[in-house]
Amino acid sequence: MIVPTIPGQGVRLRGFAQRDVDDLLAGYADPAVQRFLPPLPVPFTRAQAESYVGDVAPGMFAFGGGLYAIADPVTDRLLGGVGLDKVVPNRGQAELGYWVGPWARGRGVATAAVRALTEHSFHTGVERIELLTHRENPLSQRVALANGFGLEGVRRGVLPNRDGGRDDLLAYARLAGDEPGPAERALPDLPGGELTDGVVTLRPLAPGDVDFIAELHGLEDVVATTVPPVAPSRDKILRRCACAQSHWLAGERADLVIVDAATGTPTGDIGLYYQEPSTGQAMIGYSMMPAWRGRGYPTRAAQLVSLWAFAETGIARLIAGALPTNLGSQRVLEKAGFKREAYLRSRLPGNDGRRNDDVQFALVAEDLLTDGSRLDG
């Protein structure tokens, strides 16, 4: 059959051709493509590439979907692939997927290809398109959000992985009648990628922070203030660091590392948890390495997070809690401008089935303007 050519911004979608085999082999040999496409045979042979180009891709159109080559509109070189499958005609529904070769990344190829195919599909009768992406693939999630796909939930255990287990996938979707443009984000990126006051710098938690977070959250006094007070396993820390960007993009939480601005040394962490978007309320929590305590770093971090939250998000109220015995944490919050509001009895789970009381503090934007709170530690 003749595959229609679909123009896009900086890309052109067309049918696969024999001239694409070498680039298809190079793309499918890329570790990132193999990581997030576990059904892909490894190694992917030339014979399989030729079969894909000659039979598999053209055959997808017979089932109502289709696989397109993403090509450079000037050179016609293969940049990646994008397609629709799992078509449900009576629902007007299909699932969209894509990949981009490493030589074409960083220039908006995936975003442009997804936009072109999405708009084409809506114009040809599709009413709903789903886009499933791995929790540990924030770049793919950004593509979905940039094209107006909203996060709807998690498909648990939907993707068999290469280790014999099953992975969850995030389910994004867009309807033909949705407003054009990017999806709104509850927690935007930090301006310039970080927050700093010249003394401390806050940067997003990353997969490379596993050892630091394991050390920090293995400290006895940090564990004592954890809810529940149990040291996280290594696997849990690995998942937390690997999925931190995903949770941020989903608007659920912003995990940050507190870094000494002069040396670049990680000193602690601080998190913002957007647990009540409907009321505009979020919670913060923080921990510090012993060698860096007493310098006012958590106070500075709390104020930097507060200023960003009030200025850049819909958050109107921040809360934080501390154990009654944790006077140091209470002083941090007071110096950061938070005001004590309540003493909640038996609010938190403790050790051996016991319950702990919680001293609650809160901060609203007006407090920062009227109190003249200083970053003096």
From TrEMBL:
CDD domains: NAT_SF (cd04301). Residues 11-176, 200-370 form the N-acetyltransferase domain. One of its GO terms (cellular component) is cytoplasm. Keywords: Transferase. GO terms for molecular function: protein N-terminal-serine acetyltransferase activity; protein-N-terminal-alanine acetyltransferase activity. Gene3D superfamilies: 3.40.630.30. It comes from the Bacteria. This is RimJ/RimL family protein N-acetyltransferase. It comes from Actinoplanes digitatis.
